[in-house]
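Worked example 2:
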Amino acid sequence: MSIDHQLDDRQEKERRIRATEHEAQANLAALLQLCATGKLRCSEKTRRPSAATVAAITEVLDGGDFYEHEAIAAFAWPLLLQAGGLATLTAGRLTLTPRGRTALAKPAHETIAALWQRWLKNTLLDEFNRIEEIKGQRAANVLTAARPRRELVGQALTTRITGQWITVDDLFAQMRRAGQDPVITRSERALWKLYLEDPQYGSLGYDGHHDWPLLQGRYTLAVLFEYAAVLGLIDIDYIPPAGARTDYQHNWGGDYLDQLSRYDGLLAIRLNPLGAYTTGQSATYTPSPKPRPATPSGQITVLPNHDIAALDGLAPADALLLDAFADKTGDRVWSLTHRSLLRAIDAGRDLAELRRYLEAASRHPLPQTVTTLLDDAARRLGQVRDTGPVHLIECADPAVAALLAGDRRLRTVATRLGERHFAVPADRLAAFRKAALAQGYPLDQVR
């Protein structure tokens, strides 16, 4: 790569080139599996992940987060899943939607392409809010709408040449020439409300204190680093953010800050094949050669006694899947039982998902004892079904119940229970009420 950065010795040692294409697809699988466990929590108000959720996600990320003590990917993934309709927040916990469960069996690149397009249009988060050192953002009528800004950054990616590196400063220059200007504030007056440290002395409204890289540039870095890179669209060249950029230090209060944002260390980006497919430059996805995985992805051995051994280790997504369907009995050993399979089914998991994995990852054909166990669990599914909510209708005496039960119209909408009761599906209640009224018995509701 021929990109020249003026870095000191410390920065050069800490510099990283990270290809994100394959790790993003592994991370998507891991996040869907982790979400299916019901252990991920987000704020009901802001939809942002809790500290415990960020920590749990960090543990399963392929290669870890970009920085050890700064959440970027671990923060972004729960928001991406929500914006993409793959997960929904229920009582503070993320749960997979039907679309999310379908995504478990779909090619990851198709899901990622849909996630990016949905993220461009989302209203969950203004990425500029993640630049916490710039204060005053919550004041009324200060920030412009995030969606038009975000779409301009997305447009900038559609013009990139696949496989070609560009520094972020050169990208900024190209965006300005192309008129791709993600303006942050609604007006000049609003600009005065943004500040560093002190609302008066540190205001960004002063001449020379709100240059393009400081506002539009930081917003662009946030979208690229926290969302485009996390989804695997761009490979990145980066260093730790502290001291990476100095364009804010002449602002009052800026000299006290080690960094203006967690994204300051992004030096250059490169659109990869996944990014070309996602942005519409390529009609099909042809992956680049897969590097040696940062996390284990070995095969498994399925034994006749229902044990599953993964002596070479497993990728996080695979381990989470086995955790859902089997009992972990050793460091790299799981055991399938009737109880573990039925517990997974009761939690909404699909046995077909487990079977597909076992058949694909097993070193040998599945033992007959294991297929019999899976088949038996599958047969039990559907024997007892939840048909939805019903209304329990109570009659004052058996004679009234008998009269109503003899009405042909009522027989099709209700089921008699005992001498005085009927069960009426919620969607047939209006028909039951009409038929009962025709018999001279208006339906009284309990208050």
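The first strand starts at residue 16 and ends at 18. The chain is about 40% helix and 10% strand.
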